[in-house]
Amino acid sequence: MRKQLVLTGATLLATVLAVSSCGTRAEEATGGSGETATKVAKIGVIAPLSGDLSALGLGIQNAVDLAVKQANEKGTIPGWTLEIDPQDDQALPDTGKNAATKLAGDDEVVGVVGTLNSSVAQSVQPVLSGANIAQVSPANTNPTLTKGADPASPKRSYPGYFRTCTTDDVQGPFAARYLLDQGIKKVATIHDKKAYGQGLVAAFTDAFKSGGGTIVQAETINPDDKDFSAVISKVKGAGPEAVYYGGEFPQSGPLAQQARAAGLDVPVMGGDGMYTPSYIELAGKTSEGDLATSVGAPVETLDSAKQFVTDYAAGGYDQPYEAYGAYAYDAANAIINGLKVSLASAADAKSARQATIDAIGKVSFDGASGPVAFDEFGDNTTKILTVYKVTDGKWKADKTGS
Questions:
Q1: Domain end residue (candidates: 278, 295, 312)
Q2: 115 prior amide bond cis, ω within 30
Q3: pTM of the model
Q4: Which residue from 112, 104, 105, 106 is spatially nearest to 47, judged by alpha carbons?
Q5: Helix, strand or coil, per DSSP, at residue 107
Q6: Any idea what the CATH number is for the domain that residue 186 is in?
Q7: How many domains does the chain contain in total?
Q8: Which of 12, 236, 291, 319 lies at 20 to 30 Å from 245 by C-alpha?
Q9: Mean pLDDT, the chain, integer
């Protein structure tokens, strides 16, 4: 009888341990809370999160963060949790390349939103492309990023690169037509020698000349210049009716302020890199009447953007979404729409990278900025622009068109 009791006890103990063990494994499979465990896929962000252009970069980061949070809340991709991985490129090509290398080395990264600067994109593209990671920029406008260096024979170098904004070969001519329509026939150009600024001025110049205008002086500055007196003197001597600047607000604001102080009292016009309240702060009260083109129609006027504007405000972000927020939101959602397809049967994030690129190329949806779809080069098929004018100390839309 004693032997039988011992055997019965041992059997009972074994049964208890087995049940306990099964229970532990069941908890592990559900994350210990009854919820099915999810796999992780990351969307990186490469943008200037510090330095002079951080206002624009943080607006991009926040918009991507909003898109990722919304996708997770809605359970957009069953079995998967999305995460954002922001990297600061400081608006520098080498720093951007290092950020791309870091993201490419993370097996959970399947897409990247960025960059802000076209010159940084040139360093980032080959790194992300080499790892088959999709890149969708909300702000790069240099045409060569999608069509190569020869506009007469466009060729797509990086099939994983897309953008939700329009390009300088559209933006430059749009600005040229605007000035010509205002009766301005003589313009001086200045650019900062970077890919964005140089490309913008080249596109503007060709269109302005074709429309009957004259470039009376063509000058350049260095991105780190603070004193623009020499260039201003040359430009002033040429007698322009306006100055067209290719570059960003940290330089164009002080340049405009110094030009007015030197007696060059003509409008300064630039591209989307100037379209920010920070330009007006730097240029001062004499910026009244200055002009900038920017991608798309004014976000605040778009029915398609109303929900984005409301949700961004409710998100409690410390910074405004700035010029590229809606385009960054759409860029993130382009990736997320691609992930709906690529992650549906994927074992892990890395194995879905090429499928994500393929799926993004086929997306078509109504974004905050308007319809989003990509052509054979990766450019957005929607090409709308707006000219803004500084009026009563604020940027106000003056003309929207395509």
A1: 295
A2: yes
A3: 0.85
A4: 112
A5: coil
A6: 3.40.50.2300
A7: 2
A8: 319
A9: 91
